[in-house]
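Pipeline run #58 for the internal structure catalog. This entry was flagged by the ingest filter as a single-chain record with no existing model, so it goes straight to prediction. Upstream metadata was stripped on purpose; only the residue string is passed forward. Reviewer on rotation: M.T. Logging verbosity set to normal.
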Amino acid sequence: MVERRHQNRITGLEDKFGVWKDNRRDVEDIIIQHFMSIFTSNKPNKAESILQEVDQMVT
């Protein structure tokens, strides 16, 4: 039995200005910028107060 895999492809995305981009490099840049923005803190000093409450442990 031959099984074919179906792959989902992103052929284009809208940038932050609402402009449709379908060039592979532009799509990659949009994805990278999106994830950088959601995983980057605008208040990094808050992390230090949280880390003070966590026990330090070396394993």
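catalog note: The mean pLDDT is 88.
catalog note: The first strand starts at residue 13 and ends at 14.
status: ready for reviewer M.T.
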